[in-house]
Inverse folding.
């Protein structure tokens, strides 16, 4: 009834306006995840039941999804019928939807169920996604098969690693100036995510008064107004600050590339021409891995997220208070941010050396 009422009130132009606002407000990564997960869910539904996904999905189908994706490898070795059936597995693999040999990661299952729930609500239905049975099934399945949670970046890009990467950007070429600015800005601004670095615009930067130093010249200061991020809507007006060398590196790049407005970090053509378009988030990751290799390190051990974890790890090493570091990293959860502090100090702590 609600949808019929809306259909009478909203024109086609109204719907297109709302669709545009939803797309812009949601962000490219979220839209990609929704699209990818919907495609997987539809393919899995067809393979597992022979029918397209029903809306809303019954609780039994949600439980079947959990059973097909959170199974025990040891049990599967003894019982081929345990977990995802062989014909469903083969069907999904043949279409390229399934690549890993083992069960899904719990985070992947939770994300797909969350997106399934979101899509259900968009269609005007209430699903069984909050049912006690489903929550219990997921919790017990995870407990039954403990998994080591892998880090997004195997190793953190701490201060010493960052120095090695910056040493590969020693010339005044456009690439070296850009990559040096990316590394320094991403790290010093609290370990910004690659999407935030790729999407950074000149209009987000504000010159701040220089920071007075007792034993030297004043340090340049710059504010970055983050806008919408992974954990904020943009209404909070989150701001982080750059001081000293990162500001100098950023100014050097923008001056050389003549960036006066629009995207800050841009692609560089074969003949040294600077594009007007922003680099994409994956390019940020590729740049970091390239610099890692140039520094003689293993590219597989580092990624763009290593700058984020590295910022907090370095802050812990330097005994910077956690809350002060979180003001720059903009972590919302003390528990999540404190994990980096614990990882940095526990191996050498007294509790680990009692014997």
């Amino acid at each position: 009834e609600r949808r019929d009422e809306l259909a009478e009130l909203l024109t086609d132009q109204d719907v297109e306006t709302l669709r545009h606002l939803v797309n812009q407000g949601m962000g490219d990564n979220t839209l990609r995840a929704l699209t990818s997960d919907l495609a997987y869910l539809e393919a899995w539904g067809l393979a597992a039941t022979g029918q397209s996904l029903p809306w809303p999905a019954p609780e039994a189908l949600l439980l079947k999804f959990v059973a097909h994706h959170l199974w025990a490898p040891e049990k599967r070795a003894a019982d081929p019928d345990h977990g995802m059936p062989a014909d469903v597995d083969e069907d999904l693999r043949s279409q390229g939807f399934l690549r890993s040999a083992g069960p899904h990661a719990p985070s992947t299952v939770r994300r797909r169920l969350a997106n399934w729930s979101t899509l259900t609500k968009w269609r005007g239905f209430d699903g069984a996604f909050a049912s006690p049975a489903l929550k219990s099934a997921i919790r017990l399945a995870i407990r039954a098969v403990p998994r080591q949670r892998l880090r997004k970046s195997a190793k953190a890009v701490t201060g010493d690693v960052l120095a090695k990467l910056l040493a590969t950007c020693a010339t005044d070429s456009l690439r070296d100036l850009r990559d040096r600015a990316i590394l320094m800005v991403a790290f010093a601004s609290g370990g910004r995510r690659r999407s935030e670095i790729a999407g950074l615009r000149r209009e987000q930067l504000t010159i701040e008064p220089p920071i007075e130093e007792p034993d030297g010249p004043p340090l340049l200061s710059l504010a970055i107004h983050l806008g919408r991020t992974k954990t904020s809507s943009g209404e909070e007006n989150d701001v982080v600050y750059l001081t000293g060398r990162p500001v100098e590196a950023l100014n050097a790049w923008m001056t050389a590339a003549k960036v006066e407005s629009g995207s800050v970090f841009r692609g560089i053509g074969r003949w040294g021409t600077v594009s007007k378009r922003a680099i994409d988030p994956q390019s940020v990751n590729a740049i970091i891995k390239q610099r890692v290799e140039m520094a003689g390190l293993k590219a597989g051990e580092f990624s763009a997220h290593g700058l984020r974890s590295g910022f907090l790890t370095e802050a812990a090493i330097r005994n910077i208070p956690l809350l002060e570091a979180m003001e720059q990293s903009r972590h919302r959860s003390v528990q999540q941010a404190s994990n980096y502090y614990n990882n940095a100090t526990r191996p050498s702590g007294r509790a680990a050396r009692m014997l």
User: Anything to note?
Assistant: The CA atoms of residues 196 and 229 lie 7 Å apart. Residues 2-144 form one domain. The chain has two domains: 2-144, 159-204+248-350.
